[in-house]
Predict the 3D structure of the following.
Amino acid sequence: MSLLHALASRVETVRSDLPVAEVSVATGRLREATALLAATLESSAASSAAPLLASATSHLDAAAGALGRAGEELDRYLASVGVFASAASVVVSGSCPWADRVDVLTGQVGAARPAVEDLSVDLVLAASVRAALAGSAAGLRQVLVAAPPSVGWALGARAAGLLGVAEPALVRRGAADRLPALLPGLSASAGSALVSRALRLPAPSVSAHAADVAAVGVVLVSVVFGLTGRS
């Protein structure tokens, strides 16, 4: 074996040993924990630890991104010396449960997605509320799918904290007008139950994806802002 091929073999070994899969699994499990905690505490007055979990997940997302970039650089090096990485070393990312559900909710399945941006919960909430106030399902979807999933999972809990400044009956009425246009993929019964739950009104039990809670929360905040003159 030539020195070049020996070096290439070593680089490929390093590439394949990068713990991309392990970090992805850890990130997925932490996202699930964040979603479960946010959904559990969404109807509670207790202080939520979801933002802390969201921060931890953001760090894992950053680590996964760094590992991916490291692998790409190793592949580029191999290509530059005339040796191409084996197909087995290529990691193909799967779908994103957060963005997938947002696509369904907003009726935008199959539309091109923007790159995920490193945004805080507050920035995503502000931008998504502006899109909701503008009545744009496409704009709302654009903001939400560009949010890191860890931020998306915490969005519902953050939105819930802004709903107590307007009369619940008025918010509910406004949401009934706005939800079908902004979230056409959400059933009327689920939407009604999630609105009632968010407003601390009697509501039937509903099993909802964390993205449903977050998206409905954004729409409700937009209604509150409309009622109170905020923008």
